[in-house]
Amino acid sequence: MTVPDAKRLKDLELENSRLKKLLAESLLDIGALKVVTRGKGESGSGAGGQEMQAQTDISERRACQLFRLSRSVLCHQPRTSVQNTELQAQLVELAQERRRFGYRRLHFLLRRAGVQVNHKRIYRLYRAAGLMVKRRRRRHGIAVERERLSLPSAPNQVWSMDFVFDALSTGRRIKCLTVVDDFTKESVGILVEHGISGFRVTRALDEMARFRGYPKAIRTDQGPEFTGKALDQWAYQRDIKLKLIQPGKPTQNAFIESFNGKFRDECLNEHWFCSLAEARIRIVAWRRDYNEHRPHSAIGNLTPAEFAASWRTRQQQLKQEKLISTPGPTN
């Protein structure tokens, strides 16, 4: 072998070793990036770089280069603020009282209590405390044609009612008749019994209408208690129109279905009733809290009672303005 050949062979070996090193580094980089994409690491964050270092042999400098991140940012330890700690404690306390509330409703409750904080900080502390509400899985059923609901323009125009079922700790079933005013979103009443017939439904409606008057129409499904002679005769005597939805289409009665979902999540699923009397007491307390303290997003994050009171105040003002603007009789 000549001297030029030996020199050429040496250069080839150096090039080969350099290529092997580059290949090893690229494979290490790919493995480190796969660790982050499989996990919950976020691109461009210090958490991803720390996770990459913990599970692979990559250096801190190389991890920062892959993330295009400064090493000072990766090693930075954030300081906990006293204000954030106290605010997070308030969030945890509220979330324990109202477990199905998200960060938006908790933010409104804090604002009502006088805490002026940006909603983005609430969301950040909400996630850090692990208070995220698990989304319920949607049922995959047959698609049905929906009927558009028209929102009433005044209270007592349309009520919606339906049944919700639960059981006591003894295993005995209880039946709840829920009635909602579609305009104010108020819970007109909740009747709790072991069994409710059509005649008992009419008696309960008379009791509910004693203080607020009768509605012009009531929307129900086609259950036997709602399609029987007792409710039909009662509605005819009081000139109330019964609106029956189509069979198997609960979306046509969406207002009461939405209320029943909140009723199940925040009351029935949160308590284990030992007797019918205890169930009535807890349900009455929840209904009062729903009407007087729970903000409702469909009515401007007011409570149903506040929305109904503001509507009555506006109507009185309009009547007074109309009386003032109407000229009196001339002689």
Q: What would you call the structural class?
A: alpha/beta
Per the principal axes of the C-alpha atoms, what is the gross shape? elongated
* Strand order within the widest beta sheet: 3-2-1-4-5
End-to-end separation: 135 Å
Tally of DSSP helical segments: 13
* Percentage beta strand: 5-15%
> Tally of extended strands?
5
Mean pLDDT equals 83
Order of helices and strands: HHHHHHHEEEHEHHEHHH
The gyration radius over C-alpha positions equals 32 Å
Helix content: 40-55%
Unreliable sequence segments: 40-44, 139-147
Biggest β-sheet, characterized? 5 strands, mixed
Core attributes:
331 residues, alpha/beta, five-stranded mixed beta sheet, 5 strands, elongated
Question: Brief overview, please?
Answer:
With about 325 residues, the protein is α/β, with parallel strands linked by helices. The protein is built from 13 helices and five strands.
Describe this structure as you would to a colleague:
- The chain has 331 residues and is of the alpha/beta class.
- Helix content is 53%, strand content 10%.
- The chain contains 13 helices and 5 strands.
- The protein has helices spanning 3-38, 46-55, 60-67, 71-74, 82-97, 103-112, 119-128, 198-212, 224-227, 229-237, 254-268, 276-292, 304-325; strands at 158-167, 173-181, 187-193, 217-220, 241-244.
- It has a 5-stranded mixed β-sheet with strand order 3-2-1-4-5, sandwiched between helices.
- Strand 1 and strand 2 form a beta hairpin.
- Helix 1 packs across helix 2 (46-55) and helix 6 packs across helix 7.
- The longest helix is centred in the first third of the chain and has 36 residues, at 3-38.
- The radius of gyration is 32 Å and the shape is elongated.
- The termini are far apart.
- Residues 40-44 and 139-147 have low confidence and may be disordered.
